[in-house]
Amino acid sequence: MTKLNKQQIIELLPHREPMLLIDELYDIKKLTSATAVVNVKKDSFFVQGHFPGNPVMPGVLIVESFGQAAAALTANGLDKATYENKLVFLMGVEKARFRNPVIPDCELILKIEAIRSHGKVWKYKGEAFVNDKKMADAIWSATIVDKK
Predict the structure, then answer these.
(1) 67 burial class (0-12, 13-18, 19+ CB within 10 angstroms)?
(2) What is the pTM of this model?
(3) DSSP annotation of 30
(4) In terms of Cα–Cα distance, which of 69, 76, 89 is closest to 141?
(5) Is residue 18 classed as helix, strand or coil in its secondary structure?
(6) Total domain count for the chain?
(7) SS3 labels along 46-102
(8) Catalytic residue chosen out of the listed positions 6, 15, 30, 50
(9) How would you write the pLDDT of the chain (148 residues) with one tens digit per residue?
């Protein structure tokens, strides 16, 4: 499958509203790369408090969006029996740069790539764009663990 809608993402990830941030995953290359869409809206849960009158998507939520996109890419590519009853946990963020503020109402496009995997540990990199302008980039690692 080269495209996942929100409902299909919900079937892969444990995240639910308001913390399910990605709305679509497309251009999926199995266990290798994908592009995700995050619809950053004027009524997004963080807008009221970050910052009143000057809303900006928190950088930590951009990193979380990267992680969710990577988890969906990985879960979609693995055999269902391998991924069933598992979670993908963020292990570390090696590098994250926030180049421009992400201001609602916009479509944040995340281009992610799996750099390598070793057993249950994966390393990814990603770039975030609004209207082809780079907003952020990051390198992070995650692991697949049993649900408890």
Answers:
(1) buried
(2) 0.95
(3) T
(4) 89
(5) coil
(6) 1
(7) CCCCCCCCCCCCCHHHHHHHHHHHHHHHHHHHCCHHHHCCEEEEEEEEEEEEECCCC
(8) 50
(9) 689 999 999 999 999 999 999 999 999 999 999 999 999 999 999 888 989 899 999 999 999 999 999 999 999 998 887 778 888 899 999 999 999 999 999 999 999 999 999 988 999 999 999 999 999 999 999 998 888 7
- Residue 99: both structure tokens together: 């180049």
* Two tokens, residue 73: 């890419």
- Catalytic site includes residue 50: yes
Distance CA(18)–CA(24), nearest Å, equals 15
Q: CATH number of the domain that 116 lies in?
A: 3.10.129.10
Q: Can you give the residue range of the structural domain that contains 101?
A: 3-146
